[in-house]
Design a protein that fits this description.
single chain; 644 residues; mainly alpha; 27 helices
Length: 644
């Protein structure tokens, strides 16, 4: 009788699981069809933009999330005995509930008040978007509590961490993915935003780099073994296929991008180490000759690091060389640049979350571009892969331009400028992003500096070098970039610090301010500041009045001082004053209860953990950025005190 009872229980459980599987499929199908309430994915392109899903009726996203999560929680007993590595039918309910809440967040940005509305109303809309993103991240974590290896939920959590500016959390979740061999080339783009802005520690980056290198080595071994086996069995077509596949991986854009980011990380890290090594420089010492010698060593160190960075930034395509560059070498460089052809094993349409379109700006700016609701392609027929390649190459060209300022002689400067001009025009043409943004009259003055000097920084910077003929005009154009970014970013940080709509623990998730700060410090300021220093100490403007250029550093230093103060007082001090038991708990309670409808699965305890996670992530990224800004500012001061 006991055996019969057990059989009946198993049969009932199987029937219940089958019914849940059918119900989940039907709910998902209805959700996909009901586009009058919520868009289901970003893949539909309008006006050549990748648009995030939106909510078209008030609270319809919250309603759908509540309905899905109620059913999700009721099914707990059905799946509790299953292996945590197994996919369960109820997981899709949690995933679609996450989708619905992110659609609510996107609608707060896209359906915000008119431009005539008060700024406080717009800030309130953006603050609600942050709240919904935190709740969406909580739902992803709720799904992963039971199904720890659900890839879709893991990708959702990586994406929500990206939009909330939690770079270290992105890498922690990514490391948990069980990537196999060549799959890494298809998954790497998920965490590029965390790495590109230098917003995590060198140790954390090194972990991901080692994993990528290990998978590359494994793929080489596997392809080699498969090739040998194909020859042994005289399957020559297969052998040729493996040969082509190996060539595809060797020219993979994902691996090239990893090499470029690794080069930048290494360059910034070694540059900082060089500054620490020479930190004993004292501007008040009487031995001016010895002081100038130390400054010269520092200058040589900066030149070397940017030469290495530019050489590796496009996977070894750009070679600076030593001293004069022969004309034939310039021609070879142009030929390689114009005929560059990457292969793409990464597919954003297949693995990106259904609610997060491929970001078309610089990878580190994925979060601010989402908050700005601007994700347009550059040309009418461009794809996300075209944009990725374009951004990747323009960034490498920016590094190449900086290195040229220190490696070229004055008599070869015009030829080098012409080379850079041809390379730039080949990739951008006349319809550059910086030019388009400068002409836009959209009434959003607060974001114009971001679009011109941050999103289109590489173009703005390269144009400053190739369009200006004199040293003074070039120097002034680059100085304006540094001053503009520093002043506007410090204003934005202070504005967010004073925002009353969000608790302190999570307020810096607003508008992607954390990744913006990281990108400005690690790329915009690093490239621009080193360009200014190399113009003063380099050979390309040998006939320029170096003392006059040094005097022009004063407003640049003042602007960077203002930014450093804003990062420290407006962000770091605010976050350091927060604690887990009070501020994080308050933030968790705020997100769990501040929606119009109660959603099962989103508890104050879970959202408190997310608040703690965001606070520690943001604090780490701000501290890295502050240290970088301080190093660059110190370097300016030291160069300003040196004499020719």
């Amino acid at each position: 009788k006991n055996d019969d009872d057990d059989d009946d229980k198993e049969l009932k459980k199987k029937d219940a699981m089958d019914a849940l599987r059918v119900e989940a499929a039907c709910r998902v199908l209805i959700a996909d069809i009901s586009r009058d309430e919520i868009d289901t994915a970003w893949v539909t392109k309008q006006k050549n933009c990748y648009s995030p899903p939106l909510v078209y009726k008030d609270c319809s996203g919250q309603n759908r999330a509540r309905i899905f999560m109620e059913r999700f929680e009721k099914c707990e007993t059905l799946v509790e005995s299953l292996d945590s590595r197994e996919w369960t039918p109820r997981d899709v309910l949690g995933v679609y509930a996450t989708h619905a809440l992110v659609a609510e967040a996107a609608s707060c940005l896209n359906l915000k008040p008119s431009r005539s509305a008060l700024k406080s109303e717009i800030i309130e809309c953006h603050s609600r978007a942050v709240m919904f993103l935190v709740c969406a991240k909580a739902l992803s974590k709720r799904v992963l509590q039971r199904s720890k290896h659900n890839a879709e939920a893991l990708f959702d959590e990586i994406a929500s961490s990206c939009l909330l500016g939690a770079s270290r959390s992105m890498l922690d979740t990514f490391a948990f993915l069980d990537a196999k061999n060549i799959q890494m080339a298809s998954l790497f783009h998920h965490v590029v935003p965390a790495l590109d802005g230098n917003s995590v520690s060198m140790e954390k980056f090194h972990e991901i780099r080692l994993k990528c290198e290990s998978l590359q080595q494994q793929s080489d071994v596997d392809i080699g073994e498969s090739f040998a086996k194909a020859l042994r069995y005289e399957a020559f077509d297969k052998a040729l296929e493996f040969t082509r596949f190996r060539d595809t991986l060797k020219r993979s854009f994902a691996f090239s991008q990893m090499d470029a980011i690794s080069s930048k990380f290494r360059s910034i890290y070694l540059h900082d180490m060089g500054l620490i090594e020479h930190a004993g420089l004292d501007v008040d010492i009487t031995d001016k000759e010895e002081f100038n010698l130390k400054v010269k060593k520092r200058f040589d160190h900066a030149t070397k690091q940017f030469a290495v960075a530019s050489q590796n930034c496009s996977n070894g395509i750009l070679c600076i060389g030593n001293g004069d560059v022969e004309e034939q070498h310039e021609m070879n460089m142009l030929y390689l640049w114009k005929n560059l052809c990457f292969t793409y094993t990464d597919d954003a349409t297949g693995t990106n979350s259904s609610w997060l379109p491929p970001h078309l700006s610089a990878p580190a700016l994925a979060a601010p571009s989402w908050f700005l609701a601007q994700n347009s392609c550059a040309t009418n027929n461009a794809s996300y892969r075209d944009e990725w390649t374009r951004n990747h190459l323009l960034e490498s060209l920016a590094y190449f331009s900086v290195a040229s300022l220190g490696s070229c002689e004055e008599n070869t400067a015009e030829r080098r400028k012409q080379t850079i001009r041809e390379m730039f025009e080949h990739r951008v043409g006349k319809n550059s992003a910086s030019g388009r943004e400068a002409k836009e009259e959209d009434g959003e003055a607060s974001s114009s500096w971001t679009r011109t000097n941050v999103f289109a920084f590489n173009e703005t910077f390269i144009q400053a070098i190739i369009r200006n003929t004199s040293a003074t005009s070039t120097f002034d154009a680059i100085s304006r970039i540094v001053i503009g970014c520093s002043r506007h970013l410090s204003e934005d940080i202070r504005a967010i610090a004073s925002n009353k709509h969000l608790p302190n623990s999570i307020k810096f998730a607003l508008d992607g301010i954390v990744p913006t700060t990281s990108y400005v410090a690690s790329h915009v300021l690093t490239v621009s500041c080193n360009a200014l220093l190399l113009m003063i100490e380099g050979k390309i403007f040998e006939s320029a009045d170096k003392n006059e250029l040094k005097q022009s550093l004063k407003p640049v230093i003042d602007a960077m001082d203002g930014l450093l103060l804003a990062v420290r007082e407006g962000a770091i001090d605010v976050l350091k004053k927060c604690n887990e038991n009070e501020d994080d708990a308050r933030a968790g309670e705020f997100c769990a209860t501040n929606s119009s409808l109660f959603i099962p699965g989103i508890t104050a305890e879970l959202t408190q953990k997310i608040a703690t996670e965001l606070r520690t992530n943001h604090l780490e990224s701000f501290e890295i950025a502050a240290k970088r800004i301080e190093f660059l500012r110190t370097e300016f001061v030291l160069f300003g005190f040196s004499t020719d």
